[in-house]
């Protein structure tokens, strides 16, 4: 027979306050997202006058229809998906082995190499030297400029390194070496299979970073056919804002309404696909991030 837990009056009050605060925080976080969704399906006049609260007012798909008419948005989707897939793969291929190597206590010069990595977190050459380097390597205005030069993320390496330090005791490596397992084989057959949690977490971080990236494309790409989705949406918003200024009074009002709808639709189009990844990797967050947060 399980004993029933008896809560004191103080525990009950504390639980009520805790749940109340949690619900309020949840509403504060979720409502702005929900407002963007319903505003994208509502008449901009209703949104501007404060008539849109919980459900769309004067339901319309005009914003999405106008957005879909732009053929370059599909090009942006294609480019962004490619940047996310290739960039995440390259990022994991670079950062995970580096993190594993730095977690090995028998690595010669381990502390010096770690300090070398950490140094780059505080000091960098700046935009102009980086631009000149990219031009020197013939990466300017190419697909690879979006996935190669910035693939190393020191923060991700540190998190993954701490994960390996906490999750792979030296005894496992010693036992494997006794059985004739070399370092390379141990990494692929033992370390990687035990790294699903941290790989999922870092993979999601990198995917979100590549999905939202626009600054590097703005600086290092000049061919619109290589623009990512974020830069295409930025161009659409700028064009619509210019049309509202250039038109007559009635035309400007109509263009302003369409521009507002397109603005909300752009937010939905650019965020929903990447948000759909979270449910698939959510279970790895506690295991990956919390273990990675343990100090040596």
Q: How does the helix and strand content classify structurally? A: mainly alpha
Overall pLDDT score: 82
Helix content: over 70%
- Distance between the ends: 43 Å
Major sheet characteristics: none
Number of helices: 15
How many runs of DSSP E, i.e. beta strands?
Answer: 0
Shape: flat
Order of helices and strands: HHHHHHHHHHHHHHH
Give the C-alpha Rg: 25 Å
Low-confidence sequence ranges: none
Q: What amount of the residues lies in strands?
A: under 5%
Write up this protein.
This protein is mainly alpha-helical and 296 residues long. It is 72% helix and 0% strand. The protein has 15 helices and no strands. The radius of gyration is 25 Å and the shape is flat.
Question: What can be said about this structure in brief?
Answer:
The protein has 296 residues and is mostly helical. 72% of the residues lie in helices and 0% in strands.
List keywords for this structure.
flat; 296 residues; 15 helices; mainly alpha
Question: Would you spell out the secondary-structure blueprint of this structure?
Answer:
Blueprint: H1 9-40, H2 44-48, H3 62-69, H4 72-103, H5 110-122, H6 127-136, H7 154-167, H8 170-178, H9 183-191, H10 196-212, H11 215-220, H12 229-246, H13 249-275, H14 278-281, H15 283-292
């Amino acid at each position: 027979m399980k004993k029933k837990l008896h809560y004191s009056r103080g525990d009950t009050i504390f639980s009520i306050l805790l749940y109340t605060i949690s619900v309020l925080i949840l509403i504060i976080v979720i409502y702005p997202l929900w407002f963007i969704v319903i505003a994208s399906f509502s008449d901009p006049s209703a949104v501007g006058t404060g008539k849109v609260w919980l459900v769309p007012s004067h339901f319309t798909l005009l914003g999405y229809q106008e957005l879909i008419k732009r053929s370059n948005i599909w090009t942006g989707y294609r480019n962004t998906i490619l940047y996310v897939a290739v960039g995440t793969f390259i990022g994991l291929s670079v950062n995970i082995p580096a993190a594993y190597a730095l977690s090995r206590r028998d690595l010669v010069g381990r502390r010096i190499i770690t300090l070398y990595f950490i140094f780059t977190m505080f000091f960098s050459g700046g935009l102009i030297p980086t631009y000149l380097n990219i031009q020197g390597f013939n990466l300017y205005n190419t697909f690879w400029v979006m996935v190669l030069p910035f693939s190393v993320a020191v923060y991700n390496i540190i998190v993954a390194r701490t994960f390996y330090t906490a999750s792979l005791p030296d005894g496992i490596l010693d036992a494997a070496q006794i059985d004739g397992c070399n370092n390379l084989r141990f990494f692929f057959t033992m370390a990687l299979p035990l790294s699903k949690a941290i790989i999922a977490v870092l993979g999601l971080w990198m995917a979100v970073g590549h999905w939202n990236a626009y600054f590097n494309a703005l600086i290092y790409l000049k061919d619109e056919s290589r623009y990512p989705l974020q830069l295409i949406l930025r161009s659409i918003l700028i064009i619509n804002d210019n049309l509202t200024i250039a038109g007559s009074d009635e035309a400007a009002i109509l263009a302003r309404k369409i521009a507002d709808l397109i603005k909300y639709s752009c937010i939905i189009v650019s965020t929903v696909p990447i948000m759909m990844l979270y449910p698939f990797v959510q279970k790895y967050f506690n295991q990956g991030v919390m273990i990675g947060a343990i100090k040596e």
